[in-house]
C-alpha cells in the first residue's frame, strides 16, 4: 500500500517530549487534502532560550523533522574531548558517590538541591542541545521562585539595563580558579614531570638490568601493568639458570614496572619468572608504600580542565578510571556544570603518568600541569575565580554598555546569594531550613516529600503521589529507580526508623545536603535584611553599621562611619556567635526571625549539626581585573572564547567580524570566594536572573 494511503487510513501518532528524551505518539487523522500542510510544532527550551521545530509530513513517501528555516543548520562542531572517547566512558555507568565535603561553587554557590540530589545521573548533552519539555516547561516554571521571593530587590547603579542571552552555549561561561598564591590556574602543559628519584635510579642502576628484558617482554609487562593482558600474568623463561640471572630479572621487572610482583616457578624442568599484580586490580589503584619514592610528595597536584560537567561528576569519572574512591581527591572549590572551568585538584599517591594517560580517553575532560606535593587541597583555600563571560544578542547601545561596566568596575554589585541557593521547585529550600530550625520534623518530611507543581522528573512525581496517598515509605521508595537522592535517602530512613524517629531518619541524608537547607534559610534572611539596609541608608556607611577588624565585628559610631565606605560594611548571617547592627535594621533581624517562629537569642539547636553560629558577609563586592568589549560575529554556533584546550591544540583564536550581524558583550572579571557571578551580571543587565522570569521573557520573545 502507498505510504500516503497508509497515512490517510491509519493516521500518524506523534508528539515531542524533549525533557526526558522520550518520543510519545499521539493519533492524528490525516486527509489527503491537508497532508502537505500538516505540521506539529514543538518548542525546545535550552537554558533560557527556545528553538522552534516543525514536523513536516511530506505528501510522498516519508515525513521529515526540520526546523522552520529554509535549510537545516549543520550539526554543531565536535566539542572538546569527543574524539578522545573511550568506549567504556560513554555510558557513565559508575555510581555517583560525591565526597562528603563542604562545597564552594565557583561563583559562591552552595550546591543547589537539584545539583546535589538528582536521583539519576544526567545524560550528557552536546553544547546547545540541553533540552527541556518545550510544551509544558514555561507553564511548570510558573511555580518557581523569582528574585523578590528570596529578598533580591535592589541595584547599586542607576544606569539603564539592557537585554542579552547568558550561557547560550556553555562555552560562553569560562571560569579559571585563583589559587591561594593568587595565581590564575591555567592548563598549559600536559607533559609528565621527570621524577628525581627515578632519574637517579636510572643513572645508577646496573646496565645489565636494562638489557635483561627483551623488547617483546617489556611490551608484555607494560600491557600487564595497564591491565591489558587478559591472562593476568607474564612468564619469562630463564635461559641461563643462575641465581644472579634470576635476581636481575626480578629487579628489572620491579624497577621498570612498578605495581608488579614476581615469583619463581618451575615447569617441565625449566625456571620461569612470573610477573603479576600483587593485589589483583587493586594494586594499581592503591600502590604499596615501597613503590612510592621517599623523596616524592604523597599528593599529585594537577589542573583539571572540564567542559559541561560539574566537579563531582568529573571526579567520579576520574575515580572510575583510576579505580579509586572519590574521597581520595581534594580540591579548593566546586565549579558549575554548564561552563568551561579550570581548577586545581590533588590526589593521593597516583602518578602523573597514570593521570596523563587518561587524556587519551576522557570525554570533555583534560588533565595536566602535574606536580608532587606533601599536602592535599582544602575547601576555601582559593583566593577566588576569574570569569570570562559572553552575553549574546545584547540590545544595549555602546554607551549603555560602557555605563554598566564602568559602574561594575568602580562601585561593584550587591553581594546577594544567587538563585541557585534556593532551589527551583515550588518548595523553596529555605522553607525546609526554617522547619528544621523550628524543630518541626513532621513539616520537614512533608515539605521534602509532598507533591508539588512544577518541573520534576516523572519518577519523583510518582514517588510523591504514592507518599501522599499511603504515607508508606517503602511503597514510595519503590517508585524511585535509584535510592541515592534526597527523597530516597529520607524514605529509606523512615522505613528503617519510623515516623517517631524522624531526626535519625533525616540523618541518612548526607550531612552537606542537610546543612544546605539551613544555610539556605540564613541566606534568605541575609538577602532580605541587606535589601532593607540599602533601602534605608543607600550606599554610605552610617553609625550602627558593622565592619570587620580582623575576624571580630565592630559597631561604627557616627564619627567612625565617616571614615569608612560602603565596601567596608558587613552584615551578619543569623547565629549565636554574631552581633547585629545597632540601628533599626538590627532590630529587623529579630522581627523577621520572630515571624518565622525563631528566637534570635537562642540559635543553638537540640541537634548540634543544626546549631547556627552565624558569619559576616560584605554588602558590596567590587570585582577586580574588569575588562570588556563589544564584539560582532556572523555564526551563532561558534565559540567566542579561546580556551586553554584550544591553545594546547594550537587552534586559532576566534575571529570577529566588525560588520557581523550579531552583537555580544565579552567581559572578564575576578571575584573572591563565596560570591555569585550571576549577581554581577544581574547588576549589568538589570534583569531578574531566576529561571521563572527568564522563561517568561524567552517565551514572549519567541512568540
UniProtKB/TrEMBL annotation:
Belongs to the pseudouridine synthase TruD family. Residues 67-86, 93-134 are annotated as: Disordered. Transmembrane segments: none annotated. Residues 121-134 have a biased composition (Acidic residues). Pfam families: TruD. Residues 94-116 have a biased composition (Basic and acidic residues). GO terms for biological process: mRNA processing; pseudouridine synthesis; RNA splicing; tRNA processing. Gene3D superfamilies: TruD, catalytic domain. It catalyses: a uridine in mRNA = a pseudouridine in mRNA; uridine(13) in tRNA = pseudouridine(13) in tRNA; a uridine in tRNA = a pseudouridine in tRNA. Residues 412-622 form the TRUD domain. It comes from the Eukaryota. Pseudouridylate synthase that catalyzes pseudouridylation of RNAs. Acts as a regulator of protein synthesis in embryonic stem cells by mediating pseudouridylation of RNA fragments derived from tRNAs (tRFs): pseudouridylated tRFs inhibit translation by targeting the translation initiation complex. Also catalyzes pseudouridylation of mRNAs: mediates pseudouridylation of mRNAs with the consensus sequence 5'-UGUAG-3'. Acts as a regulator of pre-mRNA splicing by mediating pseudouridylation of pre-mRNAs at locations associated with alternatively spliced regions. GO terms for cellular component: nucleus. GO terms for molecular function: pseudouridine synthase activity; RNA binding. This is Pseudouridylate synthase 7 homolog. It is found in: Nucleus. CDD domains: PseudoU_synth_ScPUS7.
